[in-house]
Input
Amino acid sequence: MTHHILVCGGAGYIGSHAARWLAGAGHRVTVLDNLSTGHREAVRWGELIEADIRDREALRRVFAAQRYDAVMHFCALSLVGESMARPYAYYDNNVAGTLVLLEAMREAAVERLVFSSTAAVFGVPQQPLIDEDHPTAPINPYGASKLMVERMLADAASAYGLRSVALRYFNAAGATPSAEIGEAHQPETHLIPNALRAAAGSGDPLRLFGNDYPTRDGTCVRDYVHVDDLAAAHLAALEYLAVHPGAHRFNLGNGEGFSVLEVIAAVREVTGRDLPFHWEPRRAGDPPTLVAASARARQELGWTPRHADLAGIIASAWRWHAQPRF
Output
């Protein structure tokens, strides 16, 4: 069945990939984005409405103008370090903005939401693989803001019957096979795109933060999941909500962690280029290890990541960074 989906934040990295997957599945897509971090050029699947989710009157007009069957919500400030320095901005945008969106959805009787959450809700892991039952104890305002929204969604399910899925991403990476769209943040704080820019000679010298963590080589370990796999999970979550009331949470990752130094080695292998870097102290808010247990998503959503190979993920990102479209 074809649905009309409002993709909030659909001009951003993961949101634009989700819009592409929705359109490919035959759904009608409308993107809402304030373009503060997203890119107009990334909106290639569906029309763009330029608006901010914190603007109550703008959202009322959006929902009054057209009927939507569901909302996908990617609008967020998402930089861990910045959240430590500017926590009010994160609570304003991520929490207060989501509340305005939820209220507008309720007024318009839109009862399904797929929410972009994060592994940052967990804080410092207490076990090697993090499943959905792992305690949530975020160590930065970014993670705390996302966890607050998850609580809001649970309360909304109980009070108003809102159906929702919160997808807790681990580290998104990669780009579409055609390199139509890819990761383009400004400023860029993520390891893989910064490493690729350094390899291409188009970015600043690569800075690595902390080599004294309690890990196998002293650097942070992360679970990298391809952005197309994340987009596919959003489509699966939308279908899941058709038959599952309530508020649901799923972890999305490959189940394997790679250290910073292992990523650097893979970038050198993929690009065939030297990759100079220098060390700096740890960044506040960075846990040593984050690796997902995604069995619940596999069992209940029928989701299996198709891009588990780190070199393959990096190669898809390299094709984008070698010839970025925006």
